[in-house]
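Record 1 of the preview.
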Amino acid sequence: MSAPAESYPPYSTKYYRKRKLEAEQAGKFRRQYHKKLPYRSCNKCFEDRNTGGHKQYYGNWWCPFKSSESYEEWIDALKLKGHGKKKPNEKS
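->
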């Protein structure tokens, strides 16, 4: 039986690691990776949009915690602005 062959990293990986080590030793700053939240947060209250009563109307989000108007009033205001389904013969 033959011994298992050692696996070497690809040249590109080896070169990347070498450049990274040289940059760290030279003291160059590299921005750290920040993992995203596991949920989509509301831009107004920064809570999870899928819970807490957040509602969506054609891409616009309504926040129950920061909105001064009711959901129905908010939808009526959006409809006056022209948000909603496009007409079948309407072009973008």
